[in-house]
Amino acid sequence: MKGKESKPHIGIFGRRNNGKSSLINTLAGQDIAIVSEIAGTTTDPVKKSMEITGIGPVILIDTAGIDDIGELGTKRVMRTIEALKTVDLAILVIADNQFDKTELELIEQFDDFIIPFFIVHNKSDIQSLETELNHKLTEKFKTDVIEFSCLNPDKEQLVAAIRKYMPQSAYKTNTLVGDLIKYGDVVLLITPIDIEAPEGRLILPQVQVIRDVLDHDGVAVVIKEREVDAYIRKMSPKPSLVITDSQVFLKADAAIPKDIPLTSFSIVLARQKGDFENYVKGTPAIGKLKDADRVLILESCTHHISCDDIGRVKIPRWLSNFTGKQLKFDIVSGFDKLPVSIHDYALVVQCGGCVITRKQLISRLKPAVDAGIPVTNYGMAIAYSHGIFERAIAPFVKLLKRGDDYL
Questions:
Q1: Which DSSP helix (H) or strand (E) runs through 403?
Q2: CA-to-CA distance for 19 and 148, rounded, in angstroms?
Q3: Alpha-carbon gap, residue 385 to 289, rounded angstroms
């Protein structure tokens, strides 16, 4: 599922038996969700990938009814609410001209997670949308209300609304380094090949940066950390930018002349899809950690854990050594629940998030940001604990000082 997670996510929400599963089947053009007249047929969220012209590949998510009841129904509703963390666009499905507190509370959740949405009045072949309700909803929520029937579907009407309300940031990615280089510039990429490197491949952030350099007419030079000193002695032309794996930050800092900008793959990703501004503000909180402080480390994916894992082993070791404090670390993968309240943490450290969307990453950090808890990411935390934080963020701070949009 890793490759799919970085695609825009569209969530289908509403009450039981409003035709959410039929709607998603109609959109996808195939039966991917079980359809039944029995309320509560959909339990866990169901995902399906499809292509939308003008946007590209997206993930449709069919969710359980927001009005489900009973002990099991409550758990289903909780899974539906959890799905909001992954959604870039919501489709609220109503039927029989029914709209009250249930829908209002769901829209409040959309607003809380800053999710754009439009409304579909489904089963219009049975009961048409009342003009008064249509006017009330469009005026109150400033969104489209589409009358729809899965028996006689106007699929293009739905697709047009998706194109209209899907935020461009969900499918149009900002450049990683294109605004830092010009035509013909050399970008040196330091990529360790160690136990965590996938067999026969580079890790995703390295591949993404190489592609971005080529897209912006630069020259990507890829070397391992052991070859840095030899390359620096004979390099010509001099690199305009060096990007290193965070694990060898110290070696790169020592080897690369100070007049050459240096940063890491993780920080580059943080600038593209992370909460960069809050990372910059939150990272210095590392220096204020105290004994028994709890640190939350967020991984965006599940992966094979090595004996020297970057998030589970190295970062806890570096932060403990830097602070000289007895810290407690919790590691949470994907969108798993936290073991304790977010308020119990003194710091949150987020990975680069290369396999998820910006919306998903921002939603993952939102509880900490709202609670005023400092957040940082792998690259910045490592740079700070190695004493090279200012150098590592300098290329992007210069963009900010020029007035450019670096987020």
A1: none
A2: 10
A3: 12
Q: Which of 349, 198, 205 shows the shortest CA–CA distance to 282? A: 349
Domain assignment of residue 403, yes or no: no
On the 0-12 / 13-18 / 19+ scale of CB atoms within 10 A, 104 is exposed
The separation between CA 146 and the C-alpha centre of its own chain, rounded to angstroms, equals 29
- The tens digit of pLDDT for each residue in 209-251 reads 999 999 999 999 999 988 998 888 888 888 999 999 988 999 9
For residue 402, is it within any domain?
no
At 373 the three-state DSSP class reads: coil
The token pair at 292 is: 């028994």
Query: Which residue, 272, 220, 271, 223, is CA-closest to 251?
Result: 223
Residues 195 and 321 in one domain: no
pLDDT digits (tens, 9 = 90+) for 175-188: 899 999 999 999 99
Strands 347-350 and 328-333 come out as unpaired
Using alpha carbons, select from 93, 145, 98, 151 the residue that is nearest to residue 122: 93
Please tell me whether residues 127 and 236 are part of one structural domain: no
pLDDT at 4 (0 to 100): 45
Q: Which long-range contacts (CB under 8 A, 24 or more apart) does 196-200 make?
A: 196/306, 196/308, 196/309, 196/310
Q: Is 44 helix (H, G, I), strand (E, B) or coil?
A: coil
User: Two tokens at 98?
Assistant: 């029914």
Residue 76's contacts (CB-CB under 8 Å, 6 or more residues apart) are 40, 43, 44, 64, 65, 68
Give, in order, the Cα–Cα distances in Å from 249 to each of 73, 313, 337, 373.
49, 16, 31, 26
Furthest-apart CA pair in the chain: how many Å? 77
